[in-house]
Write a structure and sequence with these properties.
The chain has 226 residues and is α/β, with parallel strands linked by helices. It has eight helices and twelve strands. It has helices spanning 10-22, 33-42, 59-68, 84-92, 105-122, 152-163, 171-178, 189-201; strands spanning 2-6, 26-30, 47-50, 75-79, 97-100, 126-129, 132-135, 140-143, 146-147, 169-170, 210-213, 217-220. A five-stranded parallel β-sheet has the order 2-1-3-4-5, sandwiched between helices. Strands 6-7-8-9 form a four-stranded antiparallel β-sheet, with helices on one face. The chain has a three-stranded antiparallel β-sheet with strand order 10-12-11. Strand 8 and strand 9 form a beta hairpin. Helix 2 packs parallel to helix 3 and helix 6 crosses helix 8 (189-201). The longest helix has 18 residues, at 105-122. The chain starts with a strand and ends in a 6-residue tail after the last strand.
Length: 226
């Protein structure tokens, strides 16, 4: 497994590299945002460990740029910024986890392993919930024996919700990951898209899988009582 650490504090970067190398990871380091983006976009990593406060470009901007360029590598924020707002901001922008400094190395290692295991599970070609099956490789979806006729954006939206089954996905995250755009509260593009997706995935069937969490977003789950 190959990791990238983007950290401008030399002692912290050295400590992390030493500990992770001892645990059989191959580790590269970057000391500023621009170097982090360069390495993150030109090399294949299994995980990026990213500080928020960095020279030249902050961690949030790095993550946004990586996602904009199609880099789907999991990201763990490791930072001294410990407010709830900072954590929410990092996670909503697409980070997989957020750990605050100071930290115990054993906890960091455990979180890294959880993210890597999750990534291996998410690499499966097939997703299923109730009688819905999604073939990620062939971009096909079926509900029971009925083929779902989905547009590319509808398939991306369905896949996003299915990958996070049981997890509420905000409109901001949907807009960023499906349309690669910043969510504008004055537009209803996400709500319209979800409504169209429901007309194909849920409306023809008695069991509903896509649910609205008012004021937050949407969740896909197989509820006992629909």
């Amino acid at each position: 497994m190959r990791l990238l650490i983007v950290e401008d504090e030399p002692k912290t970067a050295s400590y992390l590299k030493k500990g992770l190398t001892e645990n059989r990871f191959v580790v590269d380091t970057a000391s500023d945002g621009e170097e982090g983006v360069f390495l993150g976009t030109t090399h294949a990593y299994d995980l990026i460990i990213l500080d928020v406060m960095l020279p030249k470009m902050n961690g949030y901007s790095i993550l946004a740029l990586l996602r904009h360029q199609g880099v789907k590598t999991p990201v763990l924020f490791l930072t001294a910024k410990d407010s709830i707002e900072d954590r929410v901001k990092g996670l909503e922008r697409g980070a997989d986890d957020y750990l605050v400094k100071p930290f115990a190395f054993s906890e960091l290692l455990a979180r890294i392993r959880v993210i890597l295991r999750r990534g291996q599970m998410n690499s499966t070609e097939l997703l299923s919930i109730a009688n819905l099956e999604i073939d990620l490789l062939r971009h096909k979806a079926h509900r029971g024996d009925q083929r779902l006729d989905l547009t590319p954006k509808e398939f991306s939206l369905l896949s996003l919700l299915a990958r996070r089954v049981g997890e509420v996905v905000s409109r901001t995250v949907i807009a960023e990951q499906v349309w690669d755009m910043n969510f504008d509260s004055d537009t209803n593009v996400v709500d319209v898209a979800v409504r169209r997706l429901r007309s194909k995935v849920d409306d023809p069937f008695p069991k509903k899988l896509i649910h609205t969490i008012r004021g937050v977003g949407y969740v896909m789950e197989d509820r006992e009582n629909n």
